[in-house]
User: Fold this.
Amino acid sequence: MSLLLTGIAELTTNDPARGDGHADPGDALLGVIRDAALVVSDDGVVEWVGAADEAPDTDHRRDLGGRAVIPGFVDSHTHLVFAGDRSAEFAARMTGTPYDGGGIAVSVAATRAASDDELRALVAARVAEMRAQGTTTVEIKSGYGLTLDDELRSLRIAREVTAHTTFLGAHVVPREYASDRAAYVDLVTGPMLDAVTADGPTALAESIDVFCEPHSAHAFDGDEARTILEAGRAAGLALRVHGNQLGPGPGVRLACELGARSVDHCTFLDDADVEALAAARGATVATLLPGVEFSTRSPYPDGRALIDAGVDVALASDCNPGTCYSSSIPFAIALAVREMGMTPAEALHAATAVSARSLGLDRRIAPGQPAELAVIDAPSHLHLAYRAGVPIVRALDL
Ligand code: NIG
Ligand code: FE
Assistant:
């Protein structure tokens, strides 16, 4: 049994070869088909894509009423496993208190104190909130446990909702190790990593991540980050890095050198960083997280300059209790367009095709691909940024 979706005013396929040949560069990038149709099998696989007037006959039909359909957003950077509330920290930042990573300890204490079921319910609510805004694939990091048992528990709870889990034992040095940082790095690269990979390299985590940030007393410097990433790679994990968030630093170049799938934030870059990212095209994606700059009153990264330099640019939410408690990819897209010089098409591509690539996924709408779709209550993807803040996009339940 197959379902024919009709009434699609504009379909973004993310497949330039499949677009209907409009001259607009954004439409070409997105492989846009106007007046499109889609056939989906009952096990959720795309069977046919094309112009509505060429669509095959099927058993069932659904008319989407002239809406735009896009690939579901791939949110490739989140920290959804946490308990507690840090809204007062946000309020203080809005009146000038800078962010330094110190508040992470507040979330660590609350997360350790929460039961498994409490954490599970919090994660489920956040994933549902994301789906209601068009996100169909999510990466989730640990990093608010910071003991062996609490990191494992965070990863297990994350794995219940996604295959794309990331071990972030190296989020910050927890308070109990503040006077012996080396011992904490040993714990992360030894017993914690052994436990995470005990049932097979990627049984619990797909990737390892580190907050490489010399501008935070709580995070890791370049040498510590290298040790952690090399250990993770040797254990069979893919690499991700939080880099150059609070100031210039070694994170971006280290990520490119080690072949990380993604280096995230990229807020403070020098020419050598941009050159390293451009040279790493096809291997390392620069994942920009503009909700963080919004929520920390920081300058936005220069998405335009990165794209013009030939860098693979992704967008993600970084949903977390400290620097950005927004799970909204449409918000990130609106900021990228308004504040970072990206076109609406580049921003949508960054939040679907490129973020997917950073997780080893292909997010095109093409025969054989999973039908991970989102629908917009508007005739064009342009409305995502144009109607910022209005809930017009959601995952399409088939
Ligand atoms: O991606 N940079 C480090 N980690 C998070 C923030 C964590 C927090 O403040 O709770 C981030 O911005
Ligand atoms: Fe993060």
